[in-house]
Design goal:
alpha+beta, 333 residues, seven-stranded mixed beta sheet, four-stranded antiparallel beta sheet, 9 helices
């Protein structure tokens, strides 16, 4: 058997992607930080076979649900990768972070899987060229929308923006070269308020936007915030970055809470942490801010130059609101 292996990070969206159409196409653009420590490592052993066969192991154990998702994805791209019709795969995957920790595991896992897929293709074709990251982003998007952004370091934009050359709804693009150096030093400490499974999947949450009365206003707001954030990132305007980041996080949860049916994913400790962060920033002028994914856990974002003060604050003031005192310290890739 041949073997390929790839590691891919998760990412945290600043402007949120919420709502899609067609084949995994976003209803609004999004921008994210790429993380460094929270990643998925996937290895695939493969050989020729009379038909498609697969086995999947997540952290050493067979996982039927993950296998089904992977099989379904591979079946959807066999026209582009015909060798999948006659291959046997043994897939092993593991995360560097706990499952259900509020980190986008689908982004890291599916982008790692796609990088492996493209590497298998290279091996079969005896192609010595490096993997095309734009192509990787395209297929990662088909597997999981947010995975399209995880193949790029630092920061990525997914979604067509007329002011960004090469941007597209079909794949993400790197914006590393246009952001101010301060944003390349950012840290993300994830406070684990709850380790429970979300009460609504991201797929179901996106679908709720189809009938949401505020959907069109939201998509317009997201496009405006994306353009504003692009300017903010170029200028190194941390104050405006904080305003956009926190507004986007709260808007995401407002959309869920006003959908039909509604979902309330924030917990009391989530709100306590948010209030503490805002008071800390007001009292100290230290530019700590928060963002949220579709869950109760809080991502604390801050530049490298205030790490000691923020770390102390998290230990002394915020850790008490975390499930079993659990938090994960990460930074931009």
């Amino acid at each position: 058997m041949n073997k390929v292996c790839h590691k891919s990070p998760s990412n945290i969206a600043i402007v949120k992607y919420w709502g899609k159409h067609g084949n995994q196409l976003p209803n609004n653009p999004s921008i994210s930080f790429t993380l460094s420590k929270c990643h998925t490592e996937t290895s695939i052993k493969f050989c020729e076979s009379d038909c498609y066969k697969s086995n999947f192991f997540f952290e050493g154990k067979e996982n039927a649900a993950f296998k089904l998702k992977i099989d379904k994805f591979f079946q959807s791209v066999t026209n582009d990768f015909p060798f999948l019709n006659n291959i046997e795969l043994e897939i092993e995957s593991r995360n560097s972070f706990p499952h259900s920790s509020g980190i986008a595991s689908s982004a890291s896992s599916m982008s790692a899987l796609v990088l492996c897929l493209l590497d298998i293709e290279r091996t079969i074709k005896a192609d010595s060229h490096p993997i095309d990251l734009q192509r990787a982003s395209y297929y990662a998007r088909l597997a999981s929308g947010s995975a399209s952004r995880s193949v790029f370091p630092k920061m990525a934009l997914w979604g067509l923006m007329p002011t960004v050359q090469g941007s597209s709804d079909e794949y993400a693009v790197s914006i590393e070269d246009i952001i101010h150096p301060v944003f390349k030093t950012y840290h993300d400490t994830i406070l684990i308020v709850s380790s429970k499974e979300k009460s609504v999947s991201s797929r179901a949450g996106h679908a709720l936007m189809d009938t949401h009365p505020q959907a069109q206003a939201r998509y317009a707001q997201a496009r405006e915030n994306t353009q504003r954030l692009l300017t903010t990132l170029k200028l190194g305007d941390i104050e405006d970055f904080i305003k956009i980041t926190e507004d986007e996080a709260l808007t995401l949860h407002h959309l869920m809470e006003t959908s039909t049916p509604p979902f309330v994913l924030m917990e009391e400790n989530t709100k306590k942490i948010i209030n503490k962060i805002r008071r800390f920033r007001q009292d100290t002028k230290i530019p700590l801010c928060f963002t949220l994914d579709a869950g109760p856990n809080v991502h604390c974002l801050f530049p490298q130059n205030c790490q000691k003060e923020v770390d102390d604050f998290i230990i002394n003031e915020l850790k008490q609101y975390c499930h079993n005192g659990t938090f994960i310290s990460d930074s931009v890739e």
